[in-house]
Design goal:
The chain has 116 residues and is mainly β. Helix content is 9%, strand content 52%.
Length: 116
């Protein structure tokens, strides 16, 4: 079965960056998207390696982006023994829709030099 998803929305927070045991960057952030006319949906997004570096440098809370990737379902048990589950998106591609220009060099043409 194919697992592929495309979403557009706004970052709900600045990306959080951490590193795996091999030292490769991992970026995580929450994405708000329109679930219906009256409801906003939220999903946790994770990007790895070069895409994580680009995310850290160019994206911030409020940016409007479009992204494609796959959904990942995980389950775990808390220290209190409560079972939890979550769905997150693993990003394969991110495109700018609207940003205020933070992370770009002065005079840089955004359209021609988009890092994605």
């Amino acid at each position: 079965m194919l697992n592929s998803v495309v979403l557009a929305g706004n970052l709900g927070n600045d990306p959080e960056i951490h590193f795996n045991s091999e030292g490769e960057p991992i970026a995580s952030f929450n994405l708000a998207f329109r679930a219906s006319k009256q409801k906003t949906g939220w999903i946790r997004v994770t990007a790895f390696s070069k895409l994580a570096e680009i995310t850290e440098k160019h994206l911030h809370k409020g940016c409007k982006i479009a992204l494609s990737g796959v959904l990942e379902y995980s389950t775990w048990e808390t220290n209190e023994g409560v079972k939890r589950n979550a769905i997150q998106m693993i990003a394969n591609n991110i495109e700018f829709i609207k940003t205020d220009g933070r992370g770009f060099e002065v005079g840089e043409n955004h359209e021609e030099n988009t890092p994605f």
